[in-house]
Amino acid sequence: MLIKTAEDAGMHEHFEMIMPLRWSDQDLNGHINNARIVTLMEEARVRWLNSTAASEGLETFQCPKVVASLNVEYRKPVSYEDELLLVLDITRVGNGSFTVRHTGIQLGSSVFIGTTVVVPLDRESERPRKLTAAETAYLLRYAETASVAG
After folding, report:
1. What is the pLDDT of residues 57-89, one digit of tens each?
2. Cα(33)–Cα(74) distance, rounded to whole angstroms?
3. Distance separating alpha carbons of residues 44 and 36, to the nearest angstrom
4. What is the CATH number of the domain that holds 70?
5. What's the longest Cα–Cα distance across the chain?
6. Could you tell me the residue range of the domain that residue 144 belongs to?
7. Digit-coded pLDDT (tens) for 23-37
8. Which of 1, 43, 92, 132 is the most buried (most CB within 10 A)?
């Protein structure tokens, strides 16, 4: 297994998005519902990979993808009244999957950290496919360190 660092891949980048919150996102305690947090993570990830990456010439990320694994560590309640910033980067790049880290920030503090393992699918067969060299290079731009299976 080859270990690539941010220096190998170029400057570490991240995708940021202010997430719109709705009154109906709150639970009985007045906090954003935990299931809604997962949806916000998905919205930011889809915007990044399907729109931003495509606008930079990487249209292959518009292909179908599935989430193979999802984990969320809730650190603090998320408030409806305060702006929520989602910061996305990459923690692992494999041959046929990659892990996206989603950090939710409110009032300068991390309120949750989530990870999703994403598997791209072949558009025709709807079966898992390998990442292309261009996709791997794109993802490594967003990785502090990422392991790439060789």
Report:
1. 898 888 999 999 999 999 999 999 899 999 999
2. 11
3. 12
4. 3.10.129.10
5. 49
6. 2-148
7. 999 888 889 999 999
8. 92
